[in-house]
Amino acid sequence: MVRKAGSAETSRLRVDLSAIVANWQALRARHIGAVAAVVKADAYGLGARFVAPTLYAAGCRHFFVAHLSEALAIQRYLPGAMLAVLNGLAPGQADAFAANDLTAVLGSLAEIDRWTAEARKRGQRLPALLHVDTGMNRLGLDAGELQTLAADPGRLDGLDLRYVMTHLVASEIADDPANAAQRARFAAACAMLPPMPRSFANSSGIFLGPDYASDLARPGAALYGLNPTPGLANPMRQVLQLDCQVLQVREIAAGDSVGYNSTWRAKRASRIATVPLGYADGWPRAMGNRGHAIFDGARAPLVGRVSMDLTTYDVTDLPAVVPGVWLQVIGPGRTPDDIAADAGTNGYEVLTSLWTRYAREYVA
């Protein structure tokens, strides 16, 4: 067990690295081509410094981040691996990319020109992915840029083209017609470009079947236990547990309120447990009066508003809850997807909102 520096031991986040590896291996077993690991946003809030080297040791050799700074933070732990930056090559970044052997994901003609200019300056071929937009309308070569590039493929001279990629819009909805439309657009785009390997499916895309397979899949959320098949049983293992220690238990009378603005009032004499968990820790403020924590297999409803540093639970029916015991707020029986459903968001936001005030434990 490895512990990362955190706050005092009143809240602790336990990350099961072996479960993340198991999820990557399960995804690799489902996909025909290679399977990368998306470790952007600090590995979805769980700690890229620990997650990326663990996956590398398990055999993963393709990694994706969003920002240059994220790549620089973990590059030393991934010798010889492809480390690609999804947000592209911004002006002024070419030298840092090349000096650190990073793979640029090029989503515009301007980015292509910046990277080929750096290749000419260095007198070497530089690694790149081409990003083609097939419907997301955020990043990626649009139809006009693709036509321009197809008419002048020499514009790519100096590049070591590793993959051409696109990003699925609605892969978590298996019968969404956008999936088939993007598949057709991607095939047409690839036919206009020099032959190169393809990267298509994200986490949910892997579960769309063989028509969405490619040379490299790019899962993120599924690695960290989020359900890539909403509406069906989650095929992934849960990878984290968040426990908070009870600071106080207060007895209140029927009619008394709890928390800011008195949004919850006791209908009976009640016992209220306060834990060191709030929106400054990434706990959704929208969870006020929603959801529950778990103690010894039983539920403790969350009551009152979530404040900056504290959250309150009704433990009237749990007499063993006293100051010093631990309530589980994320775990096997209370997943990030469950919390997201209560908070009106998605599991991605729940994970990436987890801040550093927790003491963290990493279990191999």
Q: How would you characterize the overall build of this protein?
A:
- This protein is α/β, with parallel strands linked by helices and 364 residues long.
- The protein folds into two domains: 31-224, Alpha-Beta Barrel (TIM Barrel); 240-363, Lyase, Ornithine Decarboxylase, Chain A, domain 1, CATH 2.40.37.10.
- It contains ten helices and 21 strands.
- The protein has helices spanning 17-30, 40-44, 48-57, 68-74, 94-99, 109-122, 143-151, 177-192, 336-343, 347-352; strands spanning 2-4, 11-16, 34-35, 37-38, 62-65, 82-85, 103-106, 126-131, 159-165, 198-199, 216-217, 240-245, 248-252, 257-258, 264-265, 270-275, 292-295, 298-303, 311-314, 326-330, 359-363.
- The strands form five sheets. It has a seven-stranded parallel sheet. The chain has a five-stranded mixed sheet with strand order 1-21-2-12-20. Strands 13-16-19-18-17 form a five-stranded antiparallel sheet, with no helix packed on it.
- The chain is elongated.
- The mean pLDDT is 96.
Binned, the helix content reads: 25-40%
Total helices: the number is 10
Task: Give the tally of structural domains.
Answer: 2
Got a strand count? Answer: 21
> Judging by the overall fold, what is the CATH architecture of the largest domain?
Alpha-Beta Barrel
Q: Kindly report the average pLDDT value.
A: 96
- What amount of the residues lies in strands? 15-25%
Rough outline: elongated
**In CATH terms, what is the fold-level topology of the largest domain?**
TIM Barrel
Question: Could you state the oligomeric state of the chains shown?
Answer: single chain
